Amino acid sequence: MHVTIVGAGLGGLTLARVLHVHGIPAEVYEAEPSPTARSQGGMLDIHDYNGQVAVEAAELMEEFRALILPGRQAMRVLDRHGTVLFEEPDDGTGGRPEVQRADLRRMLLDALPDGTVHWGHKVTGARALGDGRHEVTFAGGGTVVTGLLVGADGAWSRIRPLLTDATPAYAGEAFVETYLYDADTRHPAAAKAVGGGSLMVPSADKGIHAHRESGDTLHTYVSLIRPLEWFDALDFTEPAAAAARVAAEFDGWAPELTALITDGDTAPVLRPLRTLPIGHRWARVPGVTLVGDAAHLMPANGEGANLAMLDGAELGLALAAHPGAVETALAEYEEAMFPRSAKVGQEGKRFDELLVGVAEDDVPRVLIDAFREFTGAVRES
């Protein structure tokens, strides 16, 4: 068995590592020219019921623990006036420790044999050759033929069309991302509002979410439920003007909160949220499958990276458990993956539906109650 993986994100790399643990060779093809070609995003909370299960399967738990940022599991919910409504401290016993995404990716890369990842290989398409074999084409004209192909290439997967004609659709919401550096000294009011971990200030059609990352960096995601045309009218090549326009949507909010938008040390970055249909699935196609966002893209809900890693781990374990029976392994993996991802999508949809018709000042209370219910159910299970 030899596995070809398209995409060197967390899902694809977890799969490659679990395969390596079980003596199964794999090659990963990645469009980025190097591991450090771009920023890998902010912090991730890796949950004990999915993401950490994948880390265990990859036999990297000791390395993972070394990456954990102490205290970052702390969470607080504020109202738009800056009043703390709910606070959960990080006492070291929670099941969702925070790590930097880039560090987690580096951990997985370092655990693979040299040469496993082929950098600078942008996939432009793939086609079936019959008998479960596929040909993958790269920009520049190169190709590779594989007997087992896994698409781990995210929202705009080039492998997904082999299985389904589903494509991502705009979810009606976008994030505007900002960073504040040296926040404790340069932005003390905003730093105090965020606290030692994560901050959520929800409203009916907008919100401010922030994390304290390594050091005293504040990473903010400003959520706005608006049509794409609203964002198209903003000129993000003029950072100050774009930030001011976004901040205007939060008129009347506490200044230490709007400072997370207006005082950014980087240009604001627009990130529209897109999704595949909840419960998206496909009929079994010999020799190919998907993991992570390529399979079940959904709005940001804290589960995306965790699900991608668990997908990679479970696919790797299924292939190891069925040597010489690839189709049995793929069917077993998909049979578990489809309902698991659909359940997470439905839970996210339920959270959204909770806010329909809720008065703006009541939104934080409704979300706090829902969060308590969800975390209690997870801990009991």
UniProtKB/TrEMBL annotation:
Pfam families: FAD_binding_3 (PF01494). NADPH binds at residue 38. It catalyses: a tetracycline + NADPH + O2 + H(+) = an 11a-hydroxytetracycline + NADP(+) + H2O. Consists of an N-terminal FAD-binding domain with a Rossman fold and a C-terminal substrate-binding domain. An FAD-requiring monooxygenase active on some tetracycline antibiotic derivatives, which leads to their inactivation. Hydroxylates carbon 11a of tetracycline and some analogs. Monomer. This is Flavin-dependent monooxygenase.
